[in-house]
């Protein structure tokens, strides 16, 4: 990673490396929309397959009739259509309502479509940080920063949908600096 940074400086000697703590409000990586859609479709496939199986078993148990099949199909199609709509439409809406800002004092996360929240985590309250990456996140090159604080309310704050390298840089910035109190 350091070699890549050195190569970037040689390629662009006039551009100073940008600090992660610029105090500017940023959006998540746009690939998070595709990640959220993929996750939602996987969830929908499992739920709808289970629902279809349950309806088929109940149709067989009640005595297979054409009328019973018709209302069961309608009972399955309505939630399937609603979940399909949510899988496609919700991720861009959520993306537009999520942002973060990192400065020298800490990190601020804004999220929420219906219920909006602004979470501020000062660096002085950070106990440790993690960067995680599930299989789908790895496929999309994204990661999640998890910040553990010294408080009880919001003691674990996560920000998913960041480019993996950026997540590592934010993690490094939020780590407590100075002397360690470890034994």
Explain what the structure shows:
- This protein has 183 residues and is an alpha+beta fold.
- The protein has 2 domains: 33-94, no CATH class; 100-176, PH-domain like.
- It is built from 5 helices and 7 strands; from the N terminus they run αβααββββαββα.
- The strands form 2 sheets. Strands 1-2-3-4 form a 4-stranded antiparallel beta sheet. Strands 5-6-7 form a 3-stranded antiparallel beta sheet.
- The longest helix is centred in the N-terminal third of the chain and has 31 residues, at 31-61.
- Mean pLDDT is 85; it is low at 1-16.
- Helical content stands at 40-55%
Radius of gyration: 23 Å
Overall outline: elongated
Quickly give the structural class: alpha+beta
* Count of runs of 4 or more consecutive helical residues: 5
Weakly predicted, low-confidence segments: 1-16
Fraction in beta strands: 15-25%
How many domain regions? 2
Question: CATH class of the largest domain, anyone?
Answer: Mainly Beta
Reported for the largest beta sheet, the result is: 4 strands, antiparallel
CATH fold topology of the largest domain: PH-domain like
The string of secondary-structure elements, in order, is HEHHEEEEHEEH
CATH architecture of the largest domain: Roll
Tally of strands:
7
Mean pLDDT: 85
Alpha carbon gap, first and last residue: 30 Å
Going across the biggest sheet, name each strand in turn.
1-2-3-4
């Amino acid at each position: 990673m350091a070699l890549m940074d050195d190569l970037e400086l040689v390629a662009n000697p006039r551009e100073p490396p940008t600090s992660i703590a610029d105090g500017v409000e940023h959006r998540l990586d746009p690939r998070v929309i595709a990640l959220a859609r993929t996750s939602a479709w996987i969830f929908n496939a499992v739920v709808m397959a289970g629902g279809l199986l349950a309806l088929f078993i109940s149709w067989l148990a009640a005595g297979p009739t054409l009328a019973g099949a018709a209302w069961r199909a309608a009972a399955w199609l309505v939630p399937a259509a609603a979940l399909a709509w949510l899988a496609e439409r919700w991720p861009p809406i959520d993306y537009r309502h999520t942002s973060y800002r990192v400065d020298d004092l800490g990190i601020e996360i804004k999220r929420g479509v219906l219920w909006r929240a602004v979470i501020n985590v000062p660096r002085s309250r950070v106990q440790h940080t993690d960067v995680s990456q599930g299989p789908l996140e790895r496929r999309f090159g994204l990661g999640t920063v998890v910040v553990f604080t010294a408080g009880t309310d919001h003691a674990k704050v996560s920000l998913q949908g960041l480019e993996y390298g950026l997540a590592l840089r934010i993690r490094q910035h939020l780590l407590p600096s100075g002397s360690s109190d470890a034994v």
